[in-house]
Amino acid sequence: MHANEPFSVVLVESVGHALQAEKWFKAAGIPCRLIPVPRHLSSDCGVCLRFHSDFQTQVEEILAGRLDYFEIARLSELD
Amino acid sequence: MGREAEGNPLDDRTKPPTTGEGETNMSLIYLDNAATSWPKPEVTLEAMIRCQRTVGGSPGRSGHRFSIEAGRIVYGAREALARLFRVRDPLRIALTKNSTEALNIALLGLLQPGDHVVTAGMEHNSVMRPLRFLATQGVELTIAACSPRGELDPQDIRNAFRPNTRAVVLTHASNVTGTILPVAEIAAIAREQNVLACVDAAQTAGVLPIDVEGMGIDLLAFTGHKSLYGPQGTGGLYIRKGLEQRIAPLMRGGTGSRSEHEEQPDYMPDKYESGTPNTIGLSGLAAGVDWVLEQGLETIRAREEILTRRFLDLLEGLGNEVTIYGPRGTGNRTSVVSFNLRKIAPSEAALFFDEEFGILCRPGLHCAPAAHRTIGTFPRGTLRFSFGFFNTEADVDRAAEAISRLLRG
Predict the structure, then answer these.
(1) What is the pTM of this model?
(2) Per-residue pLDDT tens for B341-359?
(3) Which of A11, A14, A37, A69 is the best residue to mutate to test the B interface, defined by the most B CB atoms within 10 Å of its own CB?
């Protein structure tokens, strides 16, 4: 993954949800990585799941109906 | 036996833990598995050492690799437990320090003044004490009677229901007599009546098959250090989806999530998991549960039934000096055997077994005065011998020999 490529993150409710989502993504062949939640997105001290924005539709499909709460945010190039 | 060829932890039994006074030359026979299992599989111990040595972080409290790895360990414990209890979503399991904490969350969090709750006469104090407390706070309590062998007729539970009955709370198997209660049948009756079924699986998780969704169990409390072969200080509570909205947490505090809010999260499992968890213990619990699943519940149960049958037969052979409690068959009981010797107090006998034979058992009331009242042994109590997967036929024979020796004076 190159630093200038567009990335998005999934914000979830807890590290447990992040780890659960990570398993689903990996099973679907979507490369992802747990990272600290960027400050401008949330003041939460937890982790979120970063993925290449190309996978956004797939990610949304995987999470819909499986997690009660999630939010997908685009990371700016500065991130 | 193949099991032994793979490395039975008891191969080290010739080197028992020392007392600190140099007494190391006596073989120990541990028959108190209903209190806590011993020994643990090597994988349990190895996982805990690996966790403390190489992970070290606090789960969910940061984004660095130690913290994430610790989070994976905790989530791994949830996943293993979810496989065991056939729970689809591992996050439906809140991790606690034991079954007692899980039961307190369920009972104190759910029941309100004016509610009615039903239980039965074989309960441990982990259920009875919270319920007796709630009864002083305006919760109505009915205790259905059990037979002197600890058996419960599901119709007695049905008959106890009232319009305001909120829950039925039952042990899956007695820690005194080993009697297995018909929890699936009772859960089905409860569901018909819109009553929640809360099951205490402290004595059965890891031995009897438990399918929470299939059996209609709404709340399942379990401990990690008995038949799940994890360490002490681990356990949990399964909460059926949506029920968390009706159950207040016992404690509130930091969860590593929603840190911008000063209010407790309202979702599973964070709602019930304030404070840094026992990551090391949970690493051992995950390994213990994986080990149980690898052996297979049927294999474990069959092994324990063989030992229990052998012990019951030997006890019966000792004649009328011995009174045995609980079911005589092994199909409707766990590997917990309570008995009394006619002229010898349980505590005296237990001391004799420990000092003269290195046999460790548990005398007394086993934190279950209600059960002892039911079987007619209150306040004297009983001697309780409880077998685990690592016990052998030789242990059983030695136990019977010790009893026989004590009877002959």
Answers:
(1) 0.93
(2) 999 999 999 999 999 999 9
(3) A14
